[in-house]
Design brief:
Elements: H1 2-28, H2 34-39, H3 45-54, H4 61-73, H5 87-122, H6 127-141, H7 144-158, H8 181-187, H9 191-227, H10 231-238, H11 243-272, H12 275-280, H13 286-296, H14 299-327, H15 329-334
Helix pairs in contact: 1-14, 5-6, 5-9, 5-11, 6-9, 7-9, 8-9, 9-11, 10-11, 11-14, 13-14
């Protein structure tokens, strides 16, 4: 297992190097320039030239890339052209929000999707199975931003149950030492702030988790249908084990292997793909930050932010691979 982990970590180097080249070339192919976006209507040829000299944008492209590689290898992700803050400090401020949102969305997807897929498989061909298939297709096909707007209108505008924007009520006076508002509410012993953070998280998590929920439900259904016809499941039933024991110990546990793969991949996608959800709900996370950086042509933010998200996605996939052996003993034995 240790050799496998080390090998996967070493593969991270060429992956990140290739990604850095792609991101570096892509953002410089965008129309406009950081100087023009920063100066706006005040832009003059002289002021644009000063900004380009200040940030080294007037140098040859290979010189800019080599400088970027050296600074990044030293742990310096640069400074935002728009806000003048370091990219590392911005990541430390915004990444906890994205983690909370992604984990809440995945929790919603797993808690609802696993039972939905399991019971659909147990009632294969019935009305519940057909209904779950229809709902999963709707969940996959409906755009996230459209579902987010429907949720805001229904639960915020019409019913007034949940807030529409932000992570917490601005009138609440509570510290945020960790940046995770749910955890900070518990650490401070402020249950009002904790509940307020949950309410602000509900609608974005449901909107972002709709597609993973549909995928988890469909994969769970297919996996359970496949596993429950295996010889060892029939043998367990022939021994007289109760249906609950057979389902929990033999069917569901072995069906979790493909589901865990999907969950791990979806967590990585949620961390990197929350742009629309964070924009609709004005949620101050990584997605909305990178979206602003694209409009501002903020090269350091795009380079550092995308590289950081890529590292997180690769590490999440590594943890998923390691979890295979914990879920399925056959894989653990095969690796010895």
């Amino acid at each position: 297992m240790l050799r496998f982990v080390v090998r996967r970590l070493l593969l991270l180097v060429p992956i990140l190097l290739g990604l850095s080249i792609l991101v570096f070339c892509w953002i410089r192919a965008l129309p406009g320039s950081p100087a023009e976006s920063l100066l706006g209507e005040r832009a003059t040829p002289e002021s644009i030239r000063q900004i380009r000299q200040q940030y080294g944008l007037d140098r040859p492209i290979y010189v800019q890339y080599w400088r970027y590689v050296k600074t990044t290898a030293g742990g310096d992700l640069g400074t935002s052209i728009a806000s003048r803050r370091t990219v590392k400090s911005e990541i430390g401020r915004r990444f906890p929000a994205t983690i909370e949102l992604a984990l809440a969305a995945m929790l919603f997807a797993v808690v609802v999707g696993l039972p939905l897929g399991f019971f659909a498989a147990k009632h294969h061909g019935g009305a519940f199975d057909q209904l779950s298939l229809v709902l999963s297709l709707i969940g996959i096909s409906m755009p996230i931003f459209f579902l987010a707007l429907i949720l805001k209108y229904a639960f915020s505008v019409r019913l007034g149950w949940l807030p529409t924007v932000g992570r917490q009520d601005v009138l609440l006076d509570v510290g945020h030492p960790t940046g995770f508002y749910l955890l900070d509410g518990l650490l401070e012993g402020n249950m009002v702030a904790f509940w307020d953070a949950i309410k602000h998280l509900m609608l974005p998590a449901i909107a972002l988790g709709s597609i993973p929920l549909a995928i988890v439900a469909r994969i769970t259904r297919a996996a359970v249908l496949d596993v429950q016809n295996e010889d060892y499941v029939r043998t367990a039933r022939a021994k007289g084990l109760s249906p609950l024991v057979v389902d929990n110990r033999h069917v569901l546990r072995n069906a979790l292997l493909p589901v865990s793969t999907i969950v791990g991949l979806q967590v990585g996608l949620l961390l990197s793909g929350a742009v629309l959800t964070e924009t609709v709900f004005a949620f101050p996370g990584m997605g909305s930050w990178l979206q602003e950086a694209i409009f501002n042509r903020d090269y350091p933010v795009l380079q550092g932010g995308i590289l950081f998200v890529a590292i997180v996605v690769v590490l999440v996939n590594l943890l998923v691979d390691i979890s295979y052996g914990l879920i399925n003993p056959r894989i653990r034995l095969a690796g010895r």
